[in-house]
Amino acid sequence: MHVSLSGIVLGVLFGLIFCAGLDGFSAPAEAPAPSASTGRQFRAGAAASNITPRLGISINGYFNDRQATHIHDELHARCLVLDDGQTRLAIVVCDSCMIPREVLDKAKRRIEEQYQLPAGHILISSTHTHTAPTSTAIFQSEPDAPYLEFLVGRIADGVGRAIHNLEPARIAWGVGREPNQVFNRRWKMKPGRIPATPLGGTHDQVKMNPPMESPDLIEPVGPTDPEVSVVSLQSPAGRPIALLANYSLHYVGTGRDNEISADYYGAFADRIQQLLGADRQDPPFVAMLSNGTSADINNINFRKKHPPQPPYEQMRLVADAVATEAQRVCGTLQYQDWVPLQVGQTELKLGVRLPAPDEVARAEAILAKAQGQPLKTAEQAFARETVLLKDYPREMPLIIQAMRIGELGIAAIPGEVFVETGLAIKQQSPFKPTFTIELANGCSGYIPTPEQHKLGGYETWPARSSFLETGAAPKIQAALMSLFQQLR
User: Is the C or the N end of the chain the one with fewer CB within 10 Å?
Assistant: First the structure.
C-alpha cells in the first residue's frame, strides 16, 4: 500500500499535538513550596537500584546463548528525578542489553501508582552492555520471568528512592568531545570480498566488523559522533548530586563473555564519581552514562590492531577517557538555580518487514536439517529468526519521547539508532544542545537510515533484531522534531 510522505507527516503532527497535550505537560500531584528569593524552586534527587541477577541466568547479545558463571561488577538501574515546582520527570539508565516495552510499561505503571509520577514523564533506557541478563527474547536467548519481575520492582524502587532524595539543586550542562574511542563498524570492501548473508542474499555492499587490517578494506560508510554530553546536578552549596552523560558507542566488551558486567558504562559511573571527589556521600552521588546513537559505532579501529590486553582492560581505558572528558566539561559549567522542565511523547505506528513465504519455507528447511539439535551457525540462527518473525504484527507501536531541561533537549528512541540519525537530530533540534538516548522506553531493533538499508549489512537483515520498515528513521526523526517544536 502506498501512502504519501506528506500525509504521514501531517498525521503524525496532529497525533503529536493531541498526545503531547495529554501527557507531555501535566504537573505532578504534589509541588514543593517556592523559594523565598525567586518564587521558584528547582530540586533533584538520585538513587541507584541493584539489578544484578543470580548466577546461571541467560546472557544475550550473541547468536548463541550464554549462562552467567561469575559476577565481575554489579548491575544497576541508575535513577534521576528532576522537579521545577510544576513539572516532575525521571530518567533511568539500566545496565542491560535491551528491555522490552511491556516490562518498562509495567515499571512505569507501578511508579505512577506508588509515587504519582505520570508514566509519560518517565524515560527508562538500557545501556546495551552485552554482559547482562537476557530481558528481551532475541536469537537463542530467552528471558527469565522471575528476573523480569525483579527488574520491574527494582526500577520502581529506584525512582521512588530518588523522589525521596529530592532536595534543592542547581543544574548545568555542556558538551565535550572524545573522538578516539568511536569508529564506524560498517565498511565498504573490494569487489567480491563480502560473503553471502545467512539469509542467502548476495547483494550486501558493506560488511559489519570486517577482518582487522584487511587489505580488502576500502572505507567506512558512515560517520561517528564524538560528543560527550553532560548534565550535572549540585546542591546549592556545590555538593555533587548526580551526573547524566551521553556517548554514542555500542559497547566495548569485557573479554569474559560468561561474566556479568555493566561494561564501560558502569566503569564510567565509578570513575567519574572518583574524579569529582563524590565518594562516600549521604545520600550517595549517582552517575549514569546513557547510550547515544551507536547502532553502527563500536570501539574497534579496523585499520590498526591494538596489542593484546587482559580482560576488562579496554573497558576501563574507554571509561577513563570518557570520564576524564566529562570531568573537564564539568569544570567549565555555569550552574543555574532554576530551569523549566517539559516532557512530550507520542505513540508512532511503524510497519514491520515480514518475511515472504519463500523465505519462510527456506528457513523451515534449514531448521528441519538441524533435527532439533542446538543451532550453531549464523544461517541456522537467522532461519529461526525468520520463522519467529513471520508471526509478528504488520505494524509496531513505538513510544517517541522528548524532554526539555531549560535549553537542553533530550530525544528518546526505542531502538538501536544509526549515528546519522542522531547527528541530524542534534542539528535540527531547536534546543542547543540536544542529545539522543537510544533503547529508551522499549527495544524495536536496529533503525538504519533508508540510505544504509540500501547498502545492506548485518543491521539490515530481517530478524527480531531488525524488523521495522526501511522508512522508520525519518518518520521517527519527524515525530521528534514536532515534539521539540511543541516544547519550544
Answer: N
- Return contacts of 283-286, CB within 8 angstroms, 24+ apart: 283/45, 283/46, 283/47, 283/165, 284/46, 284/47, 284/48, 285/46, 285/240, 285/241, 285/242, 285/243, 286/46, 286/47, 286/48, 286/78, 286/79, 286/80, 286/162, 286/241, 286/242, 286/243
The answer to whether the beta carbons of residues 135 and 99 sit under 8 Å apart is yes
Q: Which residues contact 402 (CB under 8 A, 6 or more apart)?
A: 343, 344, 345, 409, 410, 411, 412, 480, 483, 484, 487
Q: Residues 87-125: pLDDT tens digits? A: 999 999 999 999 999 999 999 999 999 999 999 999 999
C-alpha 258/C-alpha 59 separation (Å) is 7
Residue 338 to residues 43, 234, 335, 349, 407: CA-CA distances in angstroms?
Answer: 9, 12, 9, 36, 12
Q: Is 359 helix (H, G, I), strand (E, B) or coil?
A: helix
- Residue 53: name the closest of 154, 127, 161 by CA: 154
pLDDT value at residue 125: 98
Instruction: Give me the pLDDT at residue 38, please.
Output: 53
Give the pTM.
Answer: 0.92
Rounded CA gap, 73 and 402, in Å?
32
**C-alpha to C-alpha distances, 1 to 4, 351, nearest whole angstrom:** 10, 11
Separation between Cα atoms, residue 383 and residue 366, nearest integer Å: 7
